[in-house]
Design brief:
21 helices; Rossmann fold; 3 domains; 637 residues
């Protein structure tokens, strides 16, 4: 019997269409699921949508429709994008599914009957867009630390979960299961920032809105997101504490891995394990927190209007190219980046020049010199052995990388095989062998090329399934083993077709930008607009280009950094309140704009001779950076 492998994404919140950063998670999870299936595992891949909460109730009200109508539309859009991106999920759960709501009610009642849930009153800060409760220290300047929007003070009767009662037990579990939270840096963050300072009891119901799963024994309350959404991982398998154990649950739980974004690690590594402990259920074997996919250096956000969408990209590049790009650009730990320029460059270099050209050239030569029949290899030379050995090493490396969720490294390793095969063509010069009548040697070279492509395609399939299917068809084989030499000599190859055609950067950029423009929200005029000034007023402000040559924190000042600037004609010291948004080492060498004729001030005992230009407030500040080619000391006019 096959060994089971249960893998999940976080369920997508059904407030808006998911951007490419949201979509990355399901693509990553799909790649792992496909890889595990090829390894012989009985995979169950779960994804879905989170459809309750005050934010959705508000969105529905603004749209003039019921919350259910609203989430039906958005959930359909989310599922459509998952399907478009070729996600091979086994089940798509919605938290409005009847079986899920009944199970959540039973879970809540069980925890209440155990004494783990009690009624009290919440008073504090609340961010409605993020649906997050915040402490006084978290609500910086009256704004949410995550989205930067204003929070409101609220007082509300709620049910609370006794998190504190399970703190020591969870700490012990994490200590005894070092593989439970990955990457390691995320584990340290959870332990040091949340567990060691001590857990507060968690608000698990709301009485100020109605769009949620009702508490069966108190109709004033609906069950809040933590128990509702997190429980999907077991309710999707048929779990309900009031019913006999479901076969699917018995087979698949505990989950082998939850794939989630780093921003929801706390909910999945602290709240969720404690809920499971209270239910006397095993904990998931692993929670993997992936980084964010940013636009350049900026966090992608629907509220900021800087989102890029998977369907727009797919219309230009194709689904597999989008999959390849996001998987390649997301590191193991640090945030990844997407720009239109980079995706075009990767498409042209990796897909058109490397993979596409390799397959097309090899098949064309096989058709030309051997009538489209796979030639039988003769005596191999050292360079042939090197290629087959390299392919074997690539297979072993990819396995190690995939098993440890180093997905970007794995796909890069696959492409090293394609690059090595292209080099092999240059080294063996098949056209010269044909010209000199060395057909036996030519047949060996082409066989090794075809086989390198086949092995590479087997490795490529979890990342680019449609492309892999296309290449197999062109090779005329269904052999999908990892061993070098499985391709049968004497078989006809299929019809050679262009996999990826090079794109013109300028034309493609225009198409992409016009596609994204239609999704940009209309931005209302800000309330803090200043009165109009004359050109003379503006010219009284001296703006100069400058380079940051040194940077360090201001002692005992949480928000301040001390910057040393080079203006070309002089060096200058400026103090700026950007310490919560930038690390000193990130700024050194950057070119910026400084207000050069601002009267000096002293901040926390440090003199400041100017001000650098930036946008935003609080933890959402963005410094205005200049191109490296801009000379320092120039007047901005």
């Amino acid at each position: 019997m096959k060994e089971k492998f249960y893998i999940t994404t976080a369920i997508a919140y059904s407030s808006r269409k998911p951007h490419i950063g949201n979509t990355y998670e399901v693509i990553m999870t799909d790649a792992i699921a496909r890889y595990k299936r090829k390894q012989g595992y009985d995979v169950f891949f779960l994804t879905g949508t989170d459809e309750h909460g005050q934010k959705i109730e508000s969105c529905a009200s603004e749209a003039g429709i019921s919350p259910k109508e609203y989430v039906d539309k958005v959930a359909g859009e989310i599922r459509g994008i998952w399907d478009l991106m070729d996600a091979s999920y086994d089940k798509f759960i919605r938290t409005t599914d009847d079986y899920h709501e009944k199970a959540v009610q039973a879970i809540f009642k069980k925890l209440y009957d155990k004494g783990d849930i009690y009624k009290s009153e919440y008073e504090g800060w609340y961010c409605e867009p993020c649906e997050a409760f915040l402490t006084d220290t978290q609500a910086v300047d009256g704004k949410c630390p995550d989205c930067g929007r204003p929070v409101k003070r609220m007082k509300e009767e709620s049910y609370f979960f006794r998190m504190s009662a399970y703190q020591d037990r969870l700490m012990k579990y994490i200590d005894e299961h070092p593989e439970f939270i990955e990457p390691e840096a995320r584990k340290k963050e959870m332990v040091n920032n949340f567990l060691k300072p001590g857990l507060q009891d968690l608000c698990v119901s709301r009485s100020s809105f109605k769009w949620g799963v009702p508490v069966t024994f108190d109709d004033k309350h609906v069950i809040y997101v933590w128990i509702d959404a997190l429980s999907n991982y077991i309710t999707a398998l048929g779990y309900n504490p009031e019913q006999p154990e479901a076969p699917l649950f018995a087979k698949n739980w505990p989950a082998d891995v939850h794939i989630i974004g780093k921003d929801i690690m706390r909910f999945h590594t602290i709240y969720w394990p404690i809920i499971l402990m209270a239910l006397d259920l095993p904990l998931p074997k692993k929670v993997f927190g992936h980084p964010w996919l940013n636009i350049g250096a900026d966090k992608m956000s629907k509220s900021k209007g800087n989102s890029i969408y998977a369907d727009d990209l797919a219309r230009v590049f194709g689904v597999d190219a989008v999959r390849e790009y996001v998987l390649s650009e997301m590191p193991y730990l640090n945030d990844g980046s997407i720009t239109y320029e980079n995706i075009i460059a990767r498409y042209n270099n990796d897909l058109a020049n490397n993979l596409g050209n390799l397959v097309n050239r090899t098949l064309a030569m096989t058709a030309k010199y051997f009538g489209g029949i796979v030639p039988a290899p003769a005596e191999r030379e050292e360079i042939d052995s090197e290629l087959s050995a390299f392919a074997g090493e690539v297979c072993r490396t990819v396995k190690t990388q995939m098993d440890s969720y180093h997905i970007a490294d794995a796909i890069e390793t696959v492409f090293t095989l394609f690059r090595r095969a292209n080099k092999y063509i240059d080294e063996t010069t098949p056209w010269a062998l044909a010209k000199n009548g060395r057909n036996e040697r030519l047949g060996t070279v082409l066989y090794y090329l075809l086989e390198a492509i086949r092995v590479g395609t087997v490795l490529l399939e979890p990342f680019m399934p449609s492309t892999a299917k296309n290449i197999f068809a062109q090779l005329g084989t269904d052999k999908d083993g990892y061993s070098f030499g499985e391709l049968e000599a004497g078989r006809p190859i299929g019809e050679a077709k262009v996999l990826f055609s090079r794109l013109d950067e300028k034309e493609t950029l225009e198409i992409l930008r016009s596609a994204n423009k239609k999704d940009e929200p209309e931005i209302p005029k800000p309330d803090d607009c200043c009165e109009q000034i004359t050109i003379d007023d503006f010219m009284n402000t001296e703006l100069r280009t400058a380079k940051i040559i040194a940077c360090e924190p201001v002692p005992k000042a949480k928000k301040l950094l001390k910057l040393q600037l080079d203006l070309g004609y002089e060096k200058r010291q400026v103090v700026s309140g950007i310490a919560e948004c930038y690390k000193p080492e990130e700024l050194i060498g950057k070119k910026i704009i400084v207000v050069a004729n601002l009267k000096p001030v002293t901040l926390c005992g440090v003199d400041s001779f100017g001000m650098i230009l930036a946008s935003g407030e609080g933890k959402a500040i963005k410094v205005v950076f200049l191109d490296d080619a801009v000379p320092v000391g120039q007047r901005i006019r």
